[in-house]
């Protein structure tokens, strides 16, 4: 906590990653495997407001959704094999590092300084139309005030034939997204949405919120590609954060 007042955030992040490397050694084992940092551990760490067991990698801090997305990108796309133009919102550190190594046209962005290559607002991007082959946007759309504008911007910067991979927190028991403009305090957001900085809790209608006339949207439950044993070993979640929504721009 003291470091927050005396050390810039970008340096705190460096210190945190160094400490995580030491922590990773402590948790080394064979029961769990993280594809993001390519290490095996005796356990993953709990994470979340309601703690999810074995959720976070002790070394690279990847969560269930990031590990599943990494499997999908590696196995089902050419994102690592061609020098693709990639836009990555709110970048997860190890995923960002791997993508940056594979493409000279990779750009990470965040609304907050020091968390990415450059500062951008997903609701008002500075990039030209049809710039990117791939867009990665994990657990961002629930946090922005104008979700419709953000989705429109993703479509705008995608090339025709380009794809965006969207993940979000979803209440699988809710048909419609829950959004109440009167819920404005951190405590009430935590109570009704499950996280103190969410502005809505998506429901099963999320796929329809992503649809536009110039795109095709697919819902991908990629964890079903794995055996039950592998799902446990890789800790791939329970679908509430791990469904992948693939947007393909067609016009």
Give an overview in words.
The chain is of the alpha/beta class and 251 residues long. The chain has helices spanning 3-6, 9-26, 64-76, 93-102, 147-157, 186-193, 206-210, 228-234, and strands at 28-34, 39-41, 45-47, 52-56, 86-89, 106-110, 118-119, 132-138, 158-167, 215-220, 244-249. Strand 3 and strand 4 form a beta hairpin. The mean pLDDT is 93.
Describe what is shown at a glance:
The protein has helices at residues 3-6, 9-26, 64-76, 93-102, 147-157, 186-193, 206-210, 228-234; strands spanning 28-34, 39-41, 45-47, 52-56, 86-89, 106-110, 118-119, 132-138, 158-167, 215-220, 244-249.
List its traits.
two-stranded antiparallel sheet, alpha/beta, single chain, 251 residues, 7-stranded mixed β-sheet
What's the overall geometry? globular
Low-confidence stretches: none
What structural class do helix, strand and pairing data support?
A: alpha/beta
**How would you spell out the order of helices and strands?**
HHEEEEHEHEEEHEHHEHE
Strand content: 15-25%
Biggest sheet record: 7 strands, mixed
Q: Alpha-carbon distance between the termini?
A: 49 Å
Arithmetic mean of pLDDT: 93
Strand order, main sheet: write it out. Answer: 7-6-5-8-9-11-10
How many individual β-strands?
A: 11
Q: Return Rg in Å.
A: 18 Å
Q: How would the blueprint of this fold be written?
A:
Blueprint: H1 3-6, H2 9-26, E1 28-34, E2 39-41, E3 45-47, E4 52-56, H3 64-76, E5 86-89, H4 93-102, E6 106-110, E7 118-119, E8 132-138, H5 147-157, E9 158-167, H6 186-193, H7 206-210, E10 215-220, H8 228-234, E11 244-249
Parallel strand pairs: 5-6, 5-8, 6-7, 8-9
Antiparallel strand pairs: 1-2, 3-4, 9-11, 10-11
């Amino acid at each position: 906590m003291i470091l927050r007042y005396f050390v810039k955030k970008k340096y705190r992040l460096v210190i945190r990653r160094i400490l995580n490397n030491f922590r990773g050694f402590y948790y080394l084992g064979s029961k769990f495997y993280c594809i993001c940092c390519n290490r095996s551990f005796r356990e993953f760490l709990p994470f979340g407001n309601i703690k999810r067991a074995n959720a976070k990698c002790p070394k690279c801090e990847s969560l269930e959704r990031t590990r599943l997305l990494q499997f999908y990108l590696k196995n089902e796309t050419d994102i690592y094999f061609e020098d693709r133009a990639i836009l990555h919102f709110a970048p997860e550190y190890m995923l960002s590092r791997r993508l940056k190594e594979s493409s000279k046209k990779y750009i990470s962005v965040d609304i907050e300084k020091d968390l990415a290559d450059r500062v951008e607002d997903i609701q008002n991007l500075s990039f030209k139309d049809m710039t990117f082959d791939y867009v990665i946007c994990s657990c961002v759309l629930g946090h922005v005030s104008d979700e419709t504008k953000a989705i429109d911007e993703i479509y705008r910067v995608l090339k025709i034939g380009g794809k965006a991979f969207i993940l979000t927190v979803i209440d699988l028991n809710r048909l419609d997204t829950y959004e109440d403009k009167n819920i404005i305090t951190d405590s009430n957001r935590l109570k009704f949405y499950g996280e103190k900085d969410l502005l809505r809790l998506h429901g099963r209608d999320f796929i329809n919120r992503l649809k536009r006339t110039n795109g095709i949207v697919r819902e991908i439950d990629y964890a079903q590609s794995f055996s039950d044993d592998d799902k446990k070993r890789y800790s791939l979640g329970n679908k509430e954060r791990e469904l992948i929504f693939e947007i393909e721009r067609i016009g």
